Amino acid sequence: MFLASVLWIVWAAAALRAAEPPAAAKGEAPPDTMAARVQGCATCHGKRGEGTQDDYFPRIAGKPKGYLFNQLRNFHDGHRSYPPMNYLLAYLHDDYFNDMAEYYASEELPFAAPEVTKLSAAQMSLGAALVRTGVASRGIPACMTCHGVQLTGINPGIPGLIGLHSRYISAQLESWRIGTRRAAAPDCMHDVARLLTEAEITAVAGWLAAQPAPPNHAPAQQGSWKTPLLCGSQPQ
Question: What is the C-alpha separation between 169 and 188, in angstroms, rounded?
Fold first, then answer.
């Protein structure tokens, strides 16, 4: 994993250098365009943030601006650890992050076809129940109560769960559960994820990845909505 991360860093740096306009070769400062700013993002997340077929590079187009900004800051500050992202964002600042987040949040693109599930009917039923109703007796809220009835996220800072690969969702839930991915205290995602078993994480991830995007897949507006748990990064 360490070697893979190093190779990714070297490759990403080479991609950024290759993307520099001819002006840079003449000793002139390259134009500061949005296309130049997001060149490193496009390498892994698609030209417009639509995502790729790689299980671990998620779609970022259309996600709430606040969420995208928070994640850029988290990678910058080391609260999320993925060496290529940490490296690319290390010397950027909040103004860049704000513009990049706004750019990707405004992208309205069709979703790829949902993942063809390999789970059994029983596993899919379990995943659907956890997403839709949770398990009140164990203190597990339904995913829909925070991520929206359509699971497309809620502005300003809660992401959608549709259009993601099951392996990516599983990896993120595991990271929340063991604490390698963190949020501002109180860390509600850690509190929820640590209550899930590995089998439940697999079921939730598989069911979510198999769901088609709704016709209106924009994040819902916050309105009078409140999270069922106290979350440090979300207004109450």
Answer: 16
